[in-house]
Amino acid sequence: MPAITLSNGAAPAADTSIDLPLFDISQESPALARELVEAAAKHGFLWISGSPASSTSSNSGDRVTHDLDASTVQNVFNIGSRFFKEASDAEKLACKITKNRGFVDMKVENLDPQSHARGDFKQCFNLAEPEPETSAWRQPLPPQFSEPDADAALRDFHARCRAMATRLLRLIAMGLGIEDANWFVPCHDHSPQTVRLLYYPQLPSNTDYNAEADIRAGAHSDYGSITLLFTRPGQPGLEILKDDGQWARVPVSPPGYHDPAFPPIVVNIGDLLQFWTNGLLKSTVHRVVLVEQEDAAASNNGPASTNPTSASGPSGHLGRDRFSIAVFVQPADETVLVPVPSQAVEARAAAFRKAVIGRGGGSATAETLGKMTAGDHLLGRLRATYGVAVAG
């Protein structure tokens, strides 16, 4: 399997969309596990229903769990919005990113340097889980996060996302035919997952943004095991690279989705699960482009404006504000990267040995990754993205 070649990382926004499979993981079952793994192998991306549909029913005694709801997620979006829009430059500087934690300003991060000469047009805040023993945050926090209600909400969100990630990891193990459904769980239990709050601001009329040279988030694959992505209604922009080398839009919600206030959670496979499964599961390349805000009255699967000249807002502003939350689920640093004990995975070992894992700086072959720990891999990717001073 050759390295990923992507000549169109700066290609215009896609004019077609992709219909991802949608799953309700409130109950575990072997059939669900198999379907989920099939989707992860085909697309590398899928949707998870975060709230129950009105038609959802269960037999008496069945355990039904939805970890999140619209108000919980919207509250975290509100906390992030207050920080990005209200924090002073001094407050943001005090939390400047170091060792993958803290604030990232516009154009600092360049996820696709092969296609873009300067960094992405976005702001981020990477928030690691609190220390499990002391409950202390592992990094400086801005005042907008330190208020008692905000602090409690961010801790609660971390815990809810960890529960969802654990359920997904169990289902993936079951779907791969691993005898122990908890095979992935122990090495993730004590690793601090990262909640990344993202803000893609509307650009002023005098912006130096060049549609042919710049992007909101460049083409890349994710570094860890899985990513949970939360989006807002009417705020499109995510695209994935299909097998034919063409980009496809990921709608905010599938047509007729039951909860317009809480779009389904996007789940994608990261580089380490691709490696762990000898390429059976796909770590798909994706990006975020500048497109017009979706019409709330239109179908979420309908066409959105992809011409930046027609994506202007009031007074000639370019685009609209877009917020998202990415939760990166990563194994503990000391985790040794070895293929999972699955017959389907073992059958792919010889053909996968020379494969290149992921896209972006710091990517490695499967043979090289087999001699590394999860922490070594993550540090290499972060240093390629930010440099030694920031990544540690």
TrEMBL record:
Looking up SUPFAM superfamilies in the UniProt record yields: Clavaminate synthase-like
What the entry lists under Pfam families is as follows:
2OG-FeII_Oxy, DIOX_N
Q: Name one GO molecular function term.
A: metal ion binding
Where does this protein have compositionally biased stretches of type Polar residues? 298-313
Q: Which InterPro entries match?
A: DIOX_N, IPNS-like_FE2OG_OXY, IPNS-like_sf, Oxoglu/Fe-dep_dioxygenase_dom, Plant_2OG-oxidoreductases
UniProt region (Disordered), positions on chain: 297-316
A GO biological process of this protein is:
small molecule biosynthetic process
Q: Where is the Fe2OG dioxygenase domain?
A: 191-331
Give the keywords, sorted.
Iron, Metal-binding, Oxidoreductase
Q: Does the keyword Iron apply?
A: yes
Family classification: Belongs to the iron/ascorbate-dependent oxidoreductase family.
Name the chain's protein.
Answer: Fe2OG dioxygenase domain-containing protein
What is the native source organism of this protein? Cladophialophora psammophila CBS 110553
